[in-house]
Amino acid sequence: MSTTLVVLFVAVVLVGVLARKMPALQPYLEKESLAAFFLGISSGFPYAMIGATLTTRLAQGGIDKKTVTAFTLAFLVYNLKFLWAWVVDGVNLPLLGRLGQRVSWMLVTGLLVIAAVINLALVDPAADIAWTATAAIMVGAAGATFDIVIDAYRIETLKPEQLGTGSGMSQYGWRIGSAGAGALALMVSARWGWSAAYIACAGFALPAMLTALLLGEPVRHRAAAARKGLGEVWRSIAGPFVEFFQRQGALLVLLFILVHKIGDTLANLTFRLLFDDLGFSNDEIAIYDIGVGFWAYLIGIFIGGVAFARLGLKRSVLIALVLMAISNVSFAGLAAAGHSNAGMAGAIGFENLVSGFGGVVVVAYFSALCDLRFTAAQYALISAGASVVGRFVTGTTAGALIEGFGYVNFYLLTTLLALPGIVLFWWMSRSGLIDAAMGTAGEASSETRG
Known about the structure:
Number of strands: 0
CATH architecture: Up-down Bundle
Number of domains: 1
Largest sheet: none
Oligomer: single chain
C-alpha cells in the first residue's frame, strides 16, 4: 500500500510539472478534481474484493462455476443502497458530526469497509461456503454505504462545469483502486495466502477518509432539516423519488438506467472464469488483465473526456454504448482462440479502453441527473439501478449459460443484450427527453448536452 501511495504522489507531481507547460491539464489539478480522484480510489477497491478477486479465490479453491457465479449476488447489496441512502442525507452522527455530516459519515463507513474486508480475509471458503457468502455480502453492504457517501461528496464538491473532468478523475481513481487492490491481492496471495492479501488491501479505504478530513464539508452540500416525527421521516425518504419521477420522461430514463448495462455486466463478472478455464496463471492475469487493462482504461478515460467536451453528452454516450456492446465480441474471440497472451491483451485492452470512455460520459450524465437537494438518495437510486439487472442475471444464470452454450456463444449473447439500451438512448436523444429529465446538478453544463 505504501508503494502505491508513493507512485500516486510521484504521478501527481509529474502531472503538476506538465500542467505548467500544458494549460489544458490544469482543470485536472484543481482541488475538486483531485478530490474526485482519491475518492474514486477508495470506491473501487471493495468492488475488486468481492468481484474478480473473490472469483479467482473461489475458482482456485475448487468451488464449482455455478457457486462462483452465484457470489455475484453479493453485488445486489449495492443495488439496494437507495433504500437507506436517505439516512446518509438526513442523519447527523453524534460526536463525529461536529466535523460535518458528509465528513463524519465518510469516516464511519470507511472504518466499516476496513472491518468487513478483514472479516472476509479470515474466512475459509472450502470449510464454510455459507459464511464466506455472508462475509462477502457484509463487504458489499459496507462498500455500498461507503459509495453513497463518496458519490454525494464528489457531486457536491464539484462545480457544475467540473462534472466532466471530475467524472474522469473519479474513474481514474476507481480504476487505480480496483486494479491496484486486485493486483496486490494476486501478488500477496501467491506468496502469503489469501487472508494476508485481503488484509493488505483494506488500506485502500484511507484515501477517501483522508480527503474528507483535509477538504471538509462540500461547498454545495445542503444539510437536511432535522427529522422530528414519522411524517417528516417519510417525506425525507419519499422526497427524492417523488422529485425524480415528476420529471418529463423519468420512467424512460429509469428504464434506460436499468437495461443499458445488462450485457456489459454479464460479461465483466465472468472474465475470471474464462481466464481460469483457459489456464492463465495469476501472474499472467496480473500482467494482462490488470496491467494492460489498467493503462488501456486510463487512455479510454482521456478519450472520453475529449469526446465529452467536443461531441457533447448525448453523442458521446451513444458512441460509448455501441463500443461497449462490441467489446464483448472480443472475448468470444479469445474463448475461440484459447490460451493466448496476445489474445488476452487485445481483448482486455479494448474492453478497458471502451469502459474508460464510457465511464466518463455515463457517470457525468448520471451525476447531472441529480437534484442537489437529494444528492445521496438520487445518485444511489441511479447507480444502483445501473447494474441491478445484469448482476441478478449473472448470479442466477451465468454459470448455467456458460456450461450450456460455451464461452463463445455466451459472449455473443451478451452483445445482443446490449442492443435495447442503445436503441432506447438514441430514441430519447431524438425526442428531447435527455434534456427534459436533467437535474439541477447539471443545469450549468447544458452546453455540453449536444
